[in-house]
């Protein structure tokens, strides 16, 4: 088929994708622009995602283009909705010239009260957020291994990757497939992937490998809402939520949407990390979320062939912080080559090398977490 013929064929395929909000197909609705097909058969186009559109619309458009014979690949550049102008106050008054626009509801320094919605994730018995004050402390590694350990104990486990800007869960589980979609039009549900006995959902499954997630706060909240409401998780004994670092939109969106059984904080021993984790603990306390424990990662490296241990990042900072804040200390994980190897190979350490120093520590932390959760009252 000629190049122009492929462009026409892809356009026809896209007309079969109907936006449930407008009732128009995405071509007639002006949401597709710049469609090209290169000589190798790779299609590219810009997709304008509008406010209120379901996130699955982009995936459906990509899938439709991929069905065209002769198309070898599809690249979609997503154009996100623009931030709306500031609302006029109810009394009709306008802000003074040069002053910052007023925002209804929130005032500087305020924290929205958590108001979880009933019925969301009703089939999940326990939900634990794994969080950190800063990046690079091994939070996703801990979340991955806790979920895998729970599954190895015979529990129905799930892992929701809420780290929208850095979705590493696909790599750590060795998954590159795209999730399937089930259900009638307008009520579709995403089917989570399953790997090593854990049901998984991550934005990394929906984006191209090199595509960044360029999103403002409201869109992050929308993605998390879709992961909680439009993913067919089924019945789970435990869901681990891998949070992004910090104390921002994702954390607030989560606690305002669903009842958490608790948050587990991951830190490295040095003060620059424990100081950020202290702020993270205080944030969860401000929104009435229990902190079930602190884990200290990267706390020592045994030099191969010797008995010498070098504390590259110090030692004891996480345990000291837990004692200071009266939070349970669940254990420390040493620097271990087994962790790096497991992450690169897509097989959690508790499964790939359970006898390693890190594997043993992670299993012990997992056992302590399960014991803590067993003593808590049922989720509302």
Structure description:
The protein is of the alpha/beta class. It has eleven helices and 14 strands. β12 and β13 form a beta hairpin. The radius of gyration is 23 Å and the shape is globular. About 9% of the residues have low confidence.
Summarize the structure.
The protein has 380 residues and is an alpha/beta fold. It is 31% helix and 20% strand. The protein is built from eleven helices and 14 strands.
Q: Which helices and strands, and how do they pair?
A:
Blueprint: H1 3-14, E1 32-37, E2 42-48, H2 56-66, E3 73-79, E4 127-131, H3 139-152, E5 157-161, H4 169-172, E6 180-182, E7 189-191, E8 193-195, E9 198-202, H5 217-229, E10 238-242, H6 249-257, E11 262-267, H7 271-286, E12 291-302, E13 309-310, H8 317-325, E14 329-335, H9 337-345, H10 349-352, H11 357-374
Report the mean per-residue pLDDT as an integer.
Answer: 82
Q: What is the ordering of alpha helices and beta strands?
A: HEEHEEHEHEEEEHEHEHEEHEHHH
Shape: globular
Q: Find the structural class using helix and strand composition.
A: alpha/beta
For the record, give the distance between the C-alpha atoms at the N and C termini, rounded to a whole number. 58 Å
Rounded radius of gyration (Å): 23 Å
Q: How many β strands by DSSP? A: 14
Largest sheet: 9 strands, mixed
**Beta-sheet strand percentage?**
15-25%
Helix content: 25-40%
Helical run tally: 11
The residue ranges in which pLDDT falls below 50 over 5 or more consecutive positions are 82-114
């Amino acid at each position: 088929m000629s190049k122009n013929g492929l462009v026409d064929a892809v356009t026809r395929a896209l007309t079969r994708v109907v936006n449930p909000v407008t009732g128009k197909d995405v071509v007639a609705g002006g949401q597709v622009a710049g469609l090209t097909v290169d000589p190798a058969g790779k299609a590219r186009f810009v997709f304008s995602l509008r406010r209120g559109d379901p996130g699955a619309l982009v995936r459906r458009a990509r899938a439709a283009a991929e069905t065209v014979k002769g198309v070898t690949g599809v690249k979609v550049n997503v154009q996100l909705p623009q931030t709306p102008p500031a609302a006029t106050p109810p009394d009709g008054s306008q802000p003074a010239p040069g002053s910052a626009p007023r925002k209804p509801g929130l005032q500087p320094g305020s924290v929205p009260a958590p108001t979880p919605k009933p019925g969301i994730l009703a089939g999940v018995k326990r939900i634990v957020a794994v969080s950190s004050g800063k990046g690079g402390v091994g939070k996703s590694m801990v979340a991955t291994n806790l979920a895998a350990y729970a599954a190895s104990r015979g529990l129905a486990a799930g892992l929701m990757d809420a780290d929208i800007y850095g979705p590493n869960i696909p790599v750590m589980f060795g998954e590159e497939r795209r999730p399937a979609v089930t259900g009638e039009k307008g009520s579709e549900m995403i089917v989570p992937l399953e790997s090593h006995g854990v049901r998984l959902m991550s934005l990394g499954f929906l984006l191209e490998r090199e595509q960044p997630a360029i999103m403002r706060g409201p869109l992050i909240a929308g993605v998390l809402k879709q992961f909680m409401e439009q993913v067919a998780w089924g019945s789970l004994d435990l869901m681990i939520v891998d949070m992004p670092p910090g104390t921002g939109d994702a954390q607030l969106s989560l606690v305002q949407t669903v009842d958490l059984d608790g948050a587990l904080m991951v830190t490295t021993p040095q003060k620059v990390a424990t100081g950020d984790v202290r702020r993270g603990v205080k944030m969860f306390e401000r929104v009435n979320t229990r902190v079930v424990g602190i884990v200290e990662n990267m706390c020592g490296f045994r030099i191969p062939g010797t008995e010498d241990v070098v504390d590259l990042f110090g030692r004891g900072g996480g345990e000291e912080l837990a004692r200071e804040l009266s939070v349970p200390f669940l254990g420390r994980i040493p620097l271990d080559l087994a962790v790096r190897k497991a992450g690169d190979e897509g097989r959690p350490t508790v499964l790939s090398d359970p006898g390693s120093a890190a594997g043993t520590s992670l299993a012990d932390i997992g056992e302590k977490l399960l014991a803590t959760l067993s003593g808590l009252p049922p989720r509302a």
